[in-house]
């Protein structure tokens, strides 16, 4: 296999190392023919170039690994590679979430393979597990902790009492955070991963605006104090339910009892779960972010292409299914500052809630309500989202 590697940052350099250091006998015939870097100044090895055309026009390169991230020029490069009859392997959840249907169709039309195992769950072999489960079952529930950066922030704030910024800096230093960590903190990265997973299970590309999303931006020490008194752990949890031609998806900080598997997921670890009628619940745990776990997933895809182990069922994303936002419910913890108390409490009129003791702020827990209702009410309150923190109990 002759590989064109697009991007040699954290993940790309991991792929480069596994292949060139021959860390596995399975890669002994793999060669990194060209590596695309952004600028001439970054060229430090003979195979490096800053001209992408050198990769697409090289007929001896059969497979392209995209490890640049972002939508542009990743979209153009993936399209170009597939149209040049090259297999494509990517870790780029943002571009896969947006174009999974188009890339899949393009790969089929060009008789090449498009794989994206590393895009969800880092080193966890989740996409393969999901596609394998779908050989027998309709997957009716997908859930998990899909972001290492926010998981590190929540687990370290909770366990060691460290500040949000300290934990975020660690995640950046370790190479877990996105170039713009807003995508991690506000749940956008998780949303891309839930789009990919749910689109496969539903058989239709799920849209970003269909996913009810809260991130962890507003979380504070006082929240952890209260959750500790309940003996619960907070995780940024993604979930989809699928019922034949209907689906509903949400991402929100969620509380788990200490003995729940999700409560034990710490640092950059992810947990990815599915439910199917005959298999029941399956849960996969592993490092969801970081150089080698993510590179490992990319190289696994390369090995699958090389050994022609690419026979899992294809999804054509043409199912006629619809998002039904009221399918998911919960009891919600809402914490806010005294300044916006009136607006919040007015917005929740008609919903039963109980005030709870939280140091230096006001908070309540609602009765069971549809998840869409919490989004509607918070939005109608018109308060700054940094002044309010919402978690599902
Ligand atoms: N920023 C992502 C995370 C990287 O923290 O999980 C892996 O997708």
Structure description:
This protein is of the alpha/beta class and 393 residues long. The protein has three domains: 2-115, NAD(P)-binding Rossmann-like Domain (Rossmann fold); 126-289 and 314-325, Dihydrodipicolinate Reductase, domain 2, CATH 3.30.360; 328-392, Alpha-Beta Plaits (2-Layer Sandwich), CATH 3.30.70. Helices cover 34% and strands 25% of the residues. Strands 7, 8, 9, 10, 11, 12 and 13 form a seven-stranded mixed beta sheet that branches. Helix 3 packs parallel to helix 4. The longest helix is centred in the N-terminal third of the chain and has 17 residues, at 93-109. The chain is globular. The structure holds L-homoserine (HSE). The site of L-homoserine has 11 residues, from helix 6.
* Unreliable runs: none
The CATH topology of the largest domain turns out to be Dihydrodipicolinate Reductase, domain 2
| Tally of contiguous helical segments | 13
Question: Which structural class do the helices and strands define?
Answer: alpha/beta
Percent helix, as a range, is: 25-40%
Largest sheet: 7 strands, mixed
User: Can you tell me the CATH superfamily of the largest domain?
Assistant: Dihydrodipicolinate Reductase, domain 2
Overview in brief:
With 393 residues, this protein is an alpha/beta fold.
Structural features:
393 residues, alpha/beta, Dihydrodipicolinate Reductase, domain 2, Alpha-Beta Plaits, 3 domains, 34% helix, globular, binds L-homoserine
């Amino acid at each position: 296999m002759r590989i064109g590697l697009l991007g040699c940052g954290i993940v790309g350099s991991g792929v480069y190392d596994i292949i060139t250091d021959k860390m596995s006998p399975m890669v002994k015939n793999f060669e990194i023919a060209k590596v695309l870097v952004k600028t001439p100044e970054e060229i430090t090895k003979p195979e490096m170039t800053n001209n992408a055309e050198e990769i697409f026009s090289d007929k001896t390169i059969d497979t392209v690994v995209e490890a640049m991230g972002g939508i542009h020029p990743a979209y153009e490069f993936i399209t170009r590679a597939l149209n040049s009859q090259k297999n494509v392997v990517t870790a780029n959840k943002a571009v896969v979430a947006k174009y999974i249907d188009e890339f899949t169709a393009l790969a089929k039309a060009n008789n090449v393979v498009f794989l994206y195992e590393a895009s969800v769950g880092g080193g966890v072999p989740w996409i393969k597990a999901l596609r394998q489960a779908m050989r027998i079952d309709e997957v009716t529930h997908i859930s998990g902790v899909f972001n290492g950066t926010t998981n590190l922030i929540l687990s370290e704030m909770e366990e060691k009492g460290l500040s949000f910024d300290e934990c975020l800096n660690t995640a950046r230093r370790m190479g877990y955070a996105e170039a713009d960590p807003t995508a991690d903190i506000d749940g956008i990265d998780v949303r891309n991963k839930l789009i990919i997973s749910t689109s496969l299970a539903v058989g239709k590309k799920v849209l970003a605006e269909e996913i009810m999303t809260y991130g962890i931006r507003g979380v504070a020490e006082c929240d952890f104090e209260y959750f500790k008194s309940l003996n619960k752990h907070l995780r940024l949890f993604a979930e989809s339910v699928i019922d034949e031609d209907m689906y509903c998806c949400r991402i929100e900080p969620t509380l788990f009892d200490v003995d729940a598997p999700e409560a034990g997921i710490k640092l950059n670890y992810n947990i990815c779960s599915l439910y199917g009628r005959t298999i029941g619940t399956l849960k996969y745990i592993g490092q969801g972010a970081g150089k080698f776990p993510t590179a490992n997933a990319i190289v696994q895809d390369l090995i699958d292409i090389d050994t022609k182990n690419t026979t899992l069922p294809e999804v054509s994303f043409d199912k006629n299914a619809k998002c039904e936002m009221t399918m998911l419910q919960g009891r919600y913890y809402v914490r806010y500052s005294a300044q916006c108390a009136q607006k919040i409490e007015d917005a929740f009129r008609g919903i039963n809630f109980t005030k709870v003791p939280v140091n230096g702020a006001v908070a309540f827990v609602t009765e069971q309500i549809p998840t869409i209702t919490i989004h509607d009410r918070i939005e109608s309150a018109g308060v700054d989202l940094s002044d309010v923190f919402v978690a599902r109990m």
